[in-house]
Amino acid sequence: MPVGPARTRPPRQDRLRALDGLRLVAALMVAAYHYGGRGGEVTEAWGSSPKRQFPTLHEFFAYGCLGVQVFFVISGFVICMSGWGRPLKSFFASRASRLLPAYWAAVILVTAVFALPVVAYEAVSPSDALVNLTMLQQPLGADRVLGVCWTLWAEVRFYALFALCVVLPGAGRQRVIMFCAGWTLAAVIAEAANEPLLDLVLMPEYAPFFIGGIGLYLVHRDRRDAYAWGIVGVSWLIGQHYAVQELWHAPDAGGFSYRSSLGIAAVVTFGFVAVAAIALGRLHWANWRRLTVAGALTYPFYLVHEHLGWVVIHALHRGLGLPSAVTFTLTVAAMLLLAWLLNRFVEKPLTPRLRTALAKNR
Fold first, then answer.
1. N or C: which end of the chain has fewer CB atoms below 10 A?
2. How far is the C-alpha of 321 from the C-alpha of 57, rounded, in Å?
């Protein structure tokens, strides 16, 4: 199949609002995991293990961490769609302006709240807080202000690979297919070589999800593309393997966050199938404007929900004595409200300005 002109942009597509809804579902999955599906710092907020707070639901909440893998599949789809036919400067400006304003605000907000005397959690050092503003704190070994920022480090590396290998030379079907095939093979080799530098660049445990999302965008463009379906199938097979390998452990009466291998594979499959349904147009009926709002709230909600959620849970459950279910619901609602405020007063005014400033020809 011939490749069209490298810089020709495809016809404008209607917004895939179902994808916005799926983003929020993935974010809520992660929030359920952080609030009721794991131990750690949230135990201090509840006053006891979330396993005691949610005797039945904690078993389901434990699978919520796989919302990250769902995010990565969505990211592969969206990045391929947004980078197709776009110059490198425009691609960089789009990604930076999308990520940075809310991220900067979240880092400042969480640092400020944790510095309050009434908050039980310790803020990072001023130096580490400043390094966090670069989004490079993890490779630099600084303490993280936001617990979820490790996923952003994976996203940044994916953007860099896609920009250098696809956007810079010009996106086209053949080039995208070669990128997916090459990255898949290189990631497998990196896993076998057990070389830290290769692992850092190629991200074997996350690559299948990004690549699978890219393959699903190719399916969106042409549902009869056998190569695209092959990319999706191989990515799903490898992705579920990594997810099970990383998250499964044998049942332990004293343990927490136990997940079955079948359950893990089922959630990974859900992520691929849901994005595939959107790619094939099966969810065109889910075209409600409120889903666009949901999509806009997802990123700021994801950034602030974990650490600030601990503070809210402590205040509502231990401070006011509210029941666990009520506390959980109100905490999610509070974080969604905060996400709306960040979107309204930070992202909406700053994102277009930053994008324009970065995309200017000089």
1. C
2. 20
Single-letter amino acid code for the residue at 345: F
190 and 244 Cβ atoms separated by less than 8 Å: no
Q: What is the Cα–Cα distance from 202 to 158, expressed in whole angstroms?
A: 9
8 A C-beta contact, residue 221 and residue 255: no
- Encode pLDDT of 194-226 as tens digits: 999 999 999 999 999 999 999 999 999 999 999
Per DSSP, the three-state class of 329 is helix
Q: Which residue shows structure tokens 């997940």?
A: 259
DSSP secondary structure of 271-299: HHHHHHHHHTTTTTT---HHHHHHHHHHH
Q: Are 59 and 263 in contact (CB under 8 A)?
A: no
Residue 362 has pLDDT above 70, yes or no: no
- 46-93 pLDDT, tens digit each: 999 998 999 999 999 999 999 999 999 999 999 999 999 899 999 999
Residue showing tokens 């640092």: 111
Q: How far is CA 158 from CA 61, 166, 204, 209, in A?
A: 28, 11, 11, 11
What token pair was written down for 217? 């965008």
Is the predicted pLDDT of residue 105 greater than 90, yes or no?
yes
Tell the residue number behind the tokens 């279910």, with chain if given: 325
Tokens of 93: 């400006």
Closest C-alpha to 145, from 159, 155, 130: 130
Helix (H, G, I), strand (E, B) or coil at 140: helix
Cβ contact 135:99 at 8 Å: yes
* Sign for the pseudo-dihedral over CA of 111, 113, 117, 121: negative
- The whole-angstrom separation of Cα 308 and Cα 310 is 5
Rounded CA-CA distance 302/309 in Å is 11
pLDDT band at 121 (very low <50, low <70, confident <90, very high): confident
Say if CB 3 and CB 174 are below 8 A apart: yes
Rg for the chain (alpha carbons), in Å?
21
> For the chain, how many helices (H) and strands (E)?
17, 0
> In Å, how far are 122, 145, 314 from 233, measured between CA atoms?
44, 37, 44
